[in-house]
């Protein structure tokens, strides 16, 4: 391997590596992602198994030990946590949707919304991880889960379980969600 001495040589090498990496990634995504295929994160609130499209969540992590309560806020505002130096407001999703507070345990997690305007975490009871599907979800039957309807985009049945597909974008646009002050 040749030794690089000048900054221009190093920059050229890095640009070449980046270009080849992007070409390889583009080829993989075209081969491995047939039309209609999609990926989601599976999670649970109460007895409801939920899915969110992978691009709706920025990250997930265990519930932090130190969460500060927010005075004069809605009951469903769980608190504020420090996430790598940024203050993250956390909403108890079950409490917001079903007016029943979540019970924390070792499986509880925080899902961070991937929304351009809102840096918000959602407390959920459990995260099942990444799930892959070969076709788009079916339209959701609105006669069930009435309190969830405004936030659902469809449902998927997998191994006898109904997974409700939720849109965090719709949640973030709900005036009730935006106005967390009591």
UniProtKB/TrEMBL annotation:
Gene3D superfamilies: CheA-289, Domain 4. Residues 37-177 form the CheW-like domain. Pfam families: CheW (PF01584). GO terms for cellular component: cytosol. InterPro entries: CheW, CheW-like_dom_sf, CheW-lke_dom. One of its GO terms (biological process) is chemotaxis. It comes from the Bacteria. This is Type IV pili signal transduction protein PilI. It comes from Methylophaga lonarensis MPL.
């Amino acid at each position: 391997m040749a030794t690089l001495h000048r900054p221009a040589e190093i920059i050229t090498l890095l640009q070449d590596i980046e270009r080849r990496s992007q070409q390889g990634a583009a080829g993989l995504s075209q081969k491995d992602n047939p039309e209609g295929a999609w990926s989601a994160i599976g999670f649970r609130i109460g007895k409801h198994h939920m899915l969110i499209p992978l691009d709706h969540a920025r990250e997930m992590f265990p519930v932090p030990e130190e969460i500060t309560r927010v005075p004069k806020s809605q009951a469903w505002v769980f608190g504020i946590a420090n996430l790598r130096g940024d203050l993250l407001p956390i909403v108890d999703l079950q409490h917001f949707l079903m007016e029943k507070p979540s019970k924390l345990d070792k499986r509880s997690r925080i899902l961070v919304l991937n929304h351009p305007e809102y840096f918000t975490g959602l407390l959920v009871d459990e995260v099942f991880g990444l799930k892959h599907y070969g076709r788009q979800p079916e339209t959701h039957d609105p006669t069930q889960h009435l309190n969830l309807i405004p936030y659902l985009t469809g449902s998927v049945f997998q191994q006898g379980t109904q997974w409700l597909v939720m849109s965090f974008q719709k949640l973030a646009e709900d005036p009730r969600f935006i106005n967390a002050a009591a």
